């Protein structure tokens, strides 16, 4: 959508609402640019949901990142915001 109409503000309000926080096991906020790098965005999501995971930067392929991300999110309710 067009810039300046309040999309991010509305998303932040929902993301930080106490009912949303208590409803989801994991929440992540990912900033994406016009140049969308799927490997980079997937790596960022994984780092957000698993900050204690030290080998994220060692994973090279999209498949490896997706497998790890699936392991971390499997069976959990999560909210993922792309801004």
UniProtKB/TrEMBL annotation:
A GO molecular-function annotation: ADP binding
Designated name of the protein: Resistance protein candidate
Coiled coil: none
Keyword annotations of the record: Plant defense
All copies of domain NB-ARC, residue ranges: 1-83
Example GO biological process: defense response
Entries under InterPro entries matching the protein: NB-ARC, P-loop_NTPase
Keyword match Coiled coil: no
């Amino acid at each position: 959508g067009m810039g300046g109409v309040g999309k991010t503000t509305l998303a932040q309000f929902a993301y930080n609402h106490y009912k949303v926080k208590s409803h989801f096991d994991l929440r992540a906020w990912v900033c994406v640019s016009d140049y969308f790098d799927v490997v980079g965005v997937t790596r960022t999501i994984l780092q957000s949901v698993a900050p204690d995971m030290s080998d994220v930067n060692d994973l090279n392929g999209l498949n490896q990142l997706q497998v790890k991300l699936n392991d971390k999110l499997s069976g959990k309710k999560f909210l993922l915001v792309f801004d």
